[in-house]
Amino acid sequence: MDKKRIVFCDFDGTITQNDNIVAIMKHFNPPGWEELVQQLMDGKLSIRQTVGRMFAMLPTSRQAEIVDYAIHNATIRSGFGAFVDYCKEREITLLVTSGGIDFFIYPLLAPFPIPREHIYSNASSFAGDTIEILWPNGCDEHCDNDCGMCKTTIIRSYDPARYHRILIGDSVTDFAGAKLVDTVFARSHLIGLCEELELPFYPFETFYDVMKHLEAMDKHETDIGG
Ligand SMILES: [Mg+2]
Ligand SMILES: [Zn+2]
């Protein structure tokens, strides 16, 4: 039986060239944000705690400036638009699974025909004095990493008996998911992590590389099937 292909695609550093949360923090530079990152690296804070506390240091009075900076500072990786079309034509489900924040992800993805329900991210509220991050996609009972936006929870909700699961990512926050799926496309830090565990992966720099490999996989399957 043919399995249906589904893609779990990271956003920051994967669909965009760089990490947007880091870019926002570097630019607005609220005192103490680097210490929070250090505590995350040392395993003293979870991703959810770190991201929540970093944004809580930014005043909502600067909302327009912050949103504007995030959107205009980001660059979409080459080939992404073609990849969205490619998935649509091949009936491959494309899910964006991101630990980023709604206020920059939705505007940056607006030019592409991706249904809103296929975009998973954290949310935000500008109702108080400082930015509050909301967590509508938390960890299930199988994950105790306190992810905030739990990628493995989403991956687990697609039965491996029915789906060929494909992950595209760039960093440590994609690693747990990479261990679960059938096919991994990796760049940057995720390459080193996969190599350490001898986890098979395809390296990529642009989405044209990803499409090339998916085409080759197709051809291979056709050859085997006769
Ligand atoms: Mg990333
Ligand atoms: Zn989790």
UniProtKB/TrEMBL annotation:
Question: Pathway membership of this protein?
Answer: Amino-acid biosynthesis; L-methionine biosynthesis via salvage pathway; L-methionine from S-methyl-5-thio-alpha-D-ribose 1-phosphate: step 4/6
Q: Which UniProt keywords apply?
A: Amino-acid biosynthesis, Hydrolase, Methionine biosynthesis
Q: Record's SUPFAM superfamilies? A: HAD-like
Q: Which GO terms describe its molecular function?
A: 2-hydroxy-3-keto-5-methylthiopentenyl-1-phosphate phosphatase activity
Organism domain of life:
Bacteria
Q: Which GO terms describe its biological process?
A: L-methionine salvage from methylthioadenosine
This chain's protein is named 2-hydroxy-3-keto-5-methylthiopentenyl-1-phosphate phosphatase
| Protein task | Dephosphorylates 2-hydroxy-3-keto-5-methylthiopentenyl-1-phosphate (HK-MTPenyl-1-P) yielding 1,2-dihydroxy-3-keto-5-methylthiopentene (DHK-MTPene).
Q: Which family does it belong to?
A: Belongs to the HAD-like hydrolase superfamily. MtnX family.
Catalytic reaction(s) noted: 2-hydroxy-5-methylsulfanyl-3-oxopent-1-enyl phosphate + H2O = 1,2-dihydroxy-5-(methylsulfanyl)pent-1-en-3-one + phosphate
Q: Cite the EC number.
A: 3.1.3.87
Question: HAMAP family attached here?
Answer: Salvage_MtnX
Transmembrane segments annotated in the record for this chain: none
